[in-house]
Design brief:
By secondary structure, this protein is of the alpha/beta class. It has eight helices and five strands, in the order βαβααβααβααβα. It has one domain (about 15-215): P-loop containing nucleotide triphosphate hydrolases (Rossmann fold, 3-Layer(aba) Sandwich). The chain has helices at about 25-40, 55-65, 70-95, 105-115, 120-135, 150-160, 175-190, 205-219, and strands spanning about 15-20, 45, 100-105, 140-145, 195-200.
Length: about 220
């Protein structure tokens, strides 16, 4: 079951960006931030896992390839530990102050990666989600979708240019990411009013035109 509740008690809006590796989330997050700023909206940009000092420390553990023995359950609990700190310290105060929050990933990623790909039951994830989030859910989730092979090529090219090694998730095989992609698309089908699926294989200008149209509708 996909939760469709929004943050009706806050004047700010909560937007999240999701998708498999190489979908262009980072590039489009910058676009969204600038679009909102151009429309005089006070925006806080953040990411998961991470967003606060404690959450970023947990992120280092989660992405470190040396922890190959990490169980799916440990991975899930670490994700939600970082998420709880992120919510309490950064997201909820910003929304309460009337700011818009834009996050590179949120709980949909747990359903996709730890649920769809790692095999943890969705109802188990939902139990932790309800406990940690206490009714705080995104107003809109943008899913940047593209074929897995294309995404993996983009990640490899990015790593070659930056010289940065791929992390513990990026080193997974194609089948893993196919499951992640399927999970994202399934969740989007279940709650089309909250999700906007974007064809990330299309030219960037087309993707951002659709993004701008969706942002306009949120105003």
């Amino acid at each position: 079951m996909t939760n469709t509740q929004s943050n009706t008690s806050y004047s700010g809006k909560f937007l999240t960006l999701e998708g498999t590796e190489g979908g262009g989330k980072s590039t489009n997050l910058v676009f969204i931030q600038q679009w909102l700023a151009d429309h005089n909206i006070d925006v806080v940009v953040t990411r998961e896992p991470g967003g606060t000092a404690i959450s970023e420390a947990v992120r280092e553990i989660l992405l470190d390839k040396q922890y190959s023995e990490m169980t799916p359950e440990t991975e899930l609990l670490l994700m939600f530990a970082a998420r709880n700190q992120h919510l309490q310290e950064k997201i909820l105060p910003a929304l309460a102050a009337g700011k818009w929050v834009v996050s590179d990933r949120f709980t949909d990623a747990s359903y996709a990666y730890q649920g769809g790909a790692r095999g943890i039951a969705y109802n188990r994830i939902a139990e932790i989600e309800n406990w940690v989030q206490q009714g705080c859910y995104p107003d809109m989730t943008f899913v940047f979708d593209l074929p897995i092979e294309e995404g993996m090529k983009r990640v490899a090219a990015r790593s070659q240019v930056s010289g940065q090694a791929i992390d513990r998730f990026e080193q997974e095989k194609k089948d893993f990411f196919e499951k992640v992609r399927a999970a994202y698309l399934y969740r989007a089908e279940q709650a089309p009013q909250r999700y906007c699926v974007l064809d990330a294989a299309r030219p960037l200008t087309e993707v951002q035109e659709k993004l701008a149209s969706q942002l306009e509708s949120l105003l």
